[in-house]
Amino acid sequence: MLPCGNADDCVVLLDEEQYQTWKYDLRGTIVQAMQSSPSTREYDAVFEGYKLASSKNSRTHVFKRKAVHNRPTKKSSFNEMLCVSTVDATLDDVAYTMYNADTASHRSNLAMVYENRFLDGAILNTTLTKCDQDPFQWFGVKYMKIHFDASELFGPRDATYVEYSGTTADREGHKVIFIARRTVPLNVPAAVPSVTRFEFKEWFLFTQLRDGRVEAVHWYHAFPGGNFPAFLFNNVAVKYGRFVDQLPHMCRQKWLVDHTVRLSARDAPQRQRCGACNAPIKRSSRKRQQCHSCAEAVCNKCVVRAIRALDAEAAQSMIKLVYCKKCYVIASCRSQQLQDGAVRLLDDETLKTLSPAAPCPEVKACRESVASRTSLHSDSTHSPSSYSGSPGPTTQEQGRGSEDLTAASFVRLSESLRAQKLLMNELNRQLATAHI
């Protein structure tokens, strides 16, 4: 670990013990989460003690329950949040939106999720990256700085956390993208009095359904730190959990920002009609906007705003760019392709097992830092366990992980059948009592 003050100047080097501990902890979290399947997801949530907290529409349900903290008899004031949503997207859209392997894309993703509450973000370490066997594989250390509330009443929060992501398949044969995150005790960047460091743990499961849509499941639990009241933060957590419902919109936003050029003042159009709906608009009207993509004049009714994160040195962290609905519709089609002529990454039928730590043949090439400065500093640290040359897991370890997943699936199936049998016996007893 190298000392630093600014997040962009920080570099974190993980030794073998840290990597193995954090990776297998996150992997165990995903294995446990995948004991449920799309067909029984909400029933399992209710069975485990979750209660419906919000039902924005028929596709998105948010559940909450009191969290167990430290000891089974001690309850936390901050609820666990579970969001189950069905979105009109594909796994490629999810991968394009949620795979952030560099600081620029990481900041962009945070800006789309938190909008005006986003302050800063950086990638401090990259240990595993995507490869042919797993196009969504990533493991490393990230940093974010945000406001939990739009009013900025409670001050900013920041966190340094590890993230592990990859592809797999559940017991019903659905393709799944998983993401697991948790904060770690690294004082990088150095804590400052004006910012409160918070702790959280969360995971995502994105499952490709038979009808072509994606089931998005998001679990989140956090301790905001400071003097943030629990009853206010629980509402913040519920609102944050619903952002998976906006994945199609986030995908289009990202495509528009990534594939359009910046316009200058001389590109201002001379037309006095909206380029999207052809409605008349005056040249001096306040309702007149300019699309950042096609440069056409658009009225306020046809404006769609996309968020772009700025560099860390900028005076503000993000800006909202104006686009017209015509370009937004085009982006919804192009985002399905990602790029012209691109091969879809997640259509391979061989993605049937939980991706191990390093399934790539060239494991050393995957274990690289986020920038060249990481490798430059690695020689000066004099740490024999620095990560660039550490060996990957053995074949026995990988096989054990697959066996654990299969065994856990059978245990869950047996428990489900036993619960259904007890339920049927109870129903028969109640029916018999009613007839009497």
From TrEMBL:
InterPro entries: Rab4/Rab5_effector, START-like_dom_sf, Znf_FYVE_PHD. Residues 374-395 have a biased composition (Low complexity). SUPFAM superfamilies: Bet v1-like, FYVE/PHD zinc finger. Residues 374-402 are annotated as: Disordered. This is FYVE-type domain-containing protein. It comes from Aphanomyces euteiches.
